[in-house]
Amino acid sequence: MNKLELTETLREKTDLTKSEAKAVVKLFFKEISNALEKGDRVEIRGLCSFYVKKYKAYAGRNPKTGEPTRVKPKKLPFFKVGKKLRERVNS
Questions:
Q1: What is the C-alpha to C-alpha distance for residues 87 and 25, in angstroms, rounded to an integer?
Q2: Which of 8, 17, 84, 89 is surrounded by the most beta carbons within 10 Å?
Q3: Which 3 state secondary structure label does DSSP give 67?
Q4: pTM to 2 decimals?
Q5: Residue 76, C-beta contacts closer than 8 angstroms, at least 6 positions apart
Q6: Which of 51, 29, 27 has its CA nearest to residue 40?
Q7: Tell me, what's the pLDDT at 90?
Q8: Closest CA to 55 of 70, 71, 41, 43
Q9: What are the sequence ranges of the domains in the chain?
Q10: Angle, to 10 degrees, between the axis of helix 18-37 and the axis of helix 3-13?
Q11: Architecture of domain 41-91 in CATH?
């Protein structure tokens, strides 16, 4: 399911217009992105959680030349599945 399909499903199951449903979906994802940008954790009970993992700088190698290089510190967003969703998928 993509954002367009999610918007259409929301519109069908509620009394919202297409533009209102689109705005709700856009706001939902924007707020998740904003929270992650600030370093906050987003938890949707029973479904999933999103969080940012921080990596320190380290010495790496250029795979083409084999030359040593320094990899800068970085932050990456992660998704962790919730227990109830995992159980539903595996049943």
A1: 26
A2: 8
A3: coil
A4: 0.78
A5: 52, 53, 55
A6: 51
A7: 95
A8: 71
A9: 1-39, 41-91
A10: 130
A11: Irregular (4.10)
| CB-CB contact of 83 with 46 (8 Å) | yes
Describe the chain by its helix, strand, coil percentages, rounded to 5.
45, 30, 25
Q: Would you say 20 and 8 are in contact if contact means Cβ atoms under 8 Å apart?
A: no
User: What is the total residue count of the chain?
Assistant: 91
- Over its length of 91 residues, how does the chain's per-residue pLDDT go in tens digits? 999 999 999 999 999 999 999 999 999 999 999 999 999 999 999 899 999 999 999 999 999 999 999 999 999 999 999 999 999 999 9
Type of residue found at 29: F
Strand partners, 59: 70
